[in-house]
Amino acid sequence: MTHSITVPWGRSCLSLPLPDRWQVLGELKPLTNPYPVDPAVACRKALEKPIGATRIASRNLKKQRVVLVVDDHSRPTPVGEFIGPILEELAAAGVEDDRMDVLIATGVHRPSRPEEVERKLGKEIATRLRWRCHDAYNPDDLIDLGTTSRGTPVQLNRLLVESDLIICVGAVEPHLLLGFGGGLKMLVPGCASAKTIGCNHLLAVDPEHFDLVGVRGDRSPMRLDLEEAAQLVGREIFIVNAAMDELARPSCFFCGDPIQAHRAAEAFLEDHVALKITQQADVVITSSFPMNSDLRQAVKCMGNTLEACKPGGVVIACVRCENGLGEMPLPPKTMPYTAMRFLLKVLGKKRILPLVKRMKKGRPAEELFVAHFGLQMLRRNHLAILHDPRELPMGIGRKIGMAQSFTEGEAVLQWTAGKVPRDATVWVVPFGGSTYVPQGTSCLGLASPLPEELTCER
Predict the structure, then answer these.
(1) Rounded mean pLDDT, 288-313
(2) pLDDT exceeds cutoff 70 at 109
(3) Nearest in space to 396 (alpha carbons), one of 380, 411, 409, 384
(4) What is the DSSP string of 8-39?
(5) Residues 146/230, Cβ–Cβ less than 8 Å
(6) At what angle do helices 39-48 and 83-92 cross, to 10 degrees?
(7) Under DSSP, is residue 230 helix (H, G, I), strand (E, B) or coil?
(8) Which residue of 13, 367, 409, 418 could cross-link 456, Cys pair, CB 3.0 to 4.6 Å?
(9) How buried is 115 (Cβ within 10 angstroms: 0-12 exposed, 13-18 middle, 19+ buried)?
(10) Roughly what angle, to the nearest 10 degrees, separates helices 194-201 and 221-230?
């Protein structure tokens, strides 16, 4: 007799019938606030008492230029729901609309489309304020600001240097290379050159500790480097960061000093979205929700939940990709899955980086760290991607060179059954895109029903 588990699948849910001998250890879900949060009200309260900074509304900012740096289409942050209180604070300080610019922090992503900016900011704000997308490859938009103590050349968007006040508006979420997103990450990599982005990201390419999700900022070399780089801009930086729940709804705001406020946000996420386990399982079944923008964002659910799986076990990522591949680089050639995993096991974790450097010679640095992370995961575990065939090309796992891919739940479970014991143990992580399993966890995550906003298709 089979039993089923359910995970979010786009705007609905996906049901997977598991083999009858598999033992589900439980569903790993975050602490959920039972009371709805009004983003505008919560943001307004946080702006009234910023952390380590003077309230914006109490200042005299007449005739000063302000840049609002906003995260791009690849992030689900509902900026339009709480940008109003930010603009109210600026208006109270004497800032007029013609002294403001919105800079979309695209990093090396493609430019956000006008309709995507409207969804992000709200149509009224997108029409009312000047906005532009950062271009990491246009030298005319960039200015050299020096080099960090870790050797990263700092080239940032010229608009930042021409401003008097920079306000970074975005979210804090688990991040595979950085520990947590948000904070000054909005400037580096968000508004930096491709060269700056590549050098900064390479600080997280560590064979011993390739998965840094949940690592606090004061222990993350990449975070410390980007914070140093961003402050070379020489302008005051104020952050408005939303900590979001598993459905990408703002649950708490952290405003003020870009480092102090961000450290407070990290502590909040550790308490609310870190999933603690009593044991590792043979199989982890996770969903990309709510990071369903594209494949590059969606596969983060694998790294976020890797620690829940025994080395040699199987991680199944149920991914939705509204924008298809996104900026996921596809290598021109890949080895067959079994041969690649055998090679990685023979090489060992310390020799994977030299292999990647040879494979990616002459390619952008971001391809190097993406490949290194993926291959380190594949060396540790079997990886499977279950996807909607309308969103990604068939055989996408083979094309990215790090996973087996499937379009049918039954097929991925049959393949998995051949890799694990007959009485395999299973963790289910429904919100793998917004939660994470930290290293060395010792307590069981809380189980709760799926939120009502997700109606399940059986």
Answers:
(1) 94
(2) yes
(3) 384
(4) EETTEEEEEEEPTT-EEEEE-B----SS---H
(5) no
(6) 40
(7) helix
(8) 13
(9) exposed
(10) 150
Cβ–Cβ < 8 Å for 125, 104? no
Task: Write out the two tokens for 137.
Answer: 């490859």
Are 341 and 378 contacting, i.e. CB atoms less than 8 angstroms apart?
yes
Domains, the chain, in order of start with CATH, read: 3-30+274-429 (3.90.226.30), 39-271 (3.40.50.11440)
Predicted TM-score of the model (pTM): 0.90
Compute the chain's Rg from CA coordinates.
Answer: 22
The values of phi and psi at residue 121, to 5°, are -95, -20
- Count Cα neighbours of 11 within 13 Å in the Cβ-side half-sphere: 1
Beta-bridged to residue 171, according to DSSP, are 242
Residue 36, phi-psi category: left (phi > 0), alpha (psi -120 to 50), beta (remainder): beta
Given a cut of 90, is residue 177 above it in pLDDT?
no
What the block records as the tokens of 9 is 């699948």
* Angle, alpha carbons 139-111-251 (nearest 5°): 120
SS3 category, 311: strand
Residue 284 burial (C-beta neighbours within 10 Å; 0-12, 13-18, 19+)? buried
Interstrand relation of 66-71 and 165-172 (parallel, antiparallel or unpaired): parallel
In the three-class reduction of DSSP (H, G, I as helix; E, B as strand; rest coil), residue 265 is classed as helix
Tokens of 48: 């009234």
Q: How far is CA 414 from the centre of its chain?
A: 30
Closest among 284, 398, 333 to 406, alpha carbons compared = 398
Backbone angles phi, psi at 22, to 5 degrees: -70, 140
CA pair distance 57, 54, nearest whole angstrom: 9
381 near 312, Cβ under 8 Å? yes
- The string of DSSP codes covering 90-134 is HHHTT--GGGEEEEEE-TTSPPPPHHHHHHHH-HHHHHHSEEEE-
Does the structure show a pLDDT above 50 at 446?
no
Return d(Cα 242, Cα 236) in angstroms, integer. Answer: 20
Among 2, 101, 19, CA closest to 416: 19
What's the confidence (pLDDT) of residue 77?
93
pLDDT at 35 (0 to 100): 66
For 217, phi then psi, to 5°, come to -60, -35
- pLDDT tens, residue by residue, 216-274: 988 899 999 999 999 999 999 999 999 988 888 899 999 999 999 999 999 999 999 99
Q: Name the most confidently modeled range: 46-60, 268-282, 283-297, 443-457.
A: 46-60
22 burial via Cβ count (<10 Å: 0-12, 13-18, 19+): buried
Residue 165 to residue 142: CA distance in whole angstroms? 18
CB-count burial class (<10 Å; 0-12, 13-18, 19+) for 169: buried
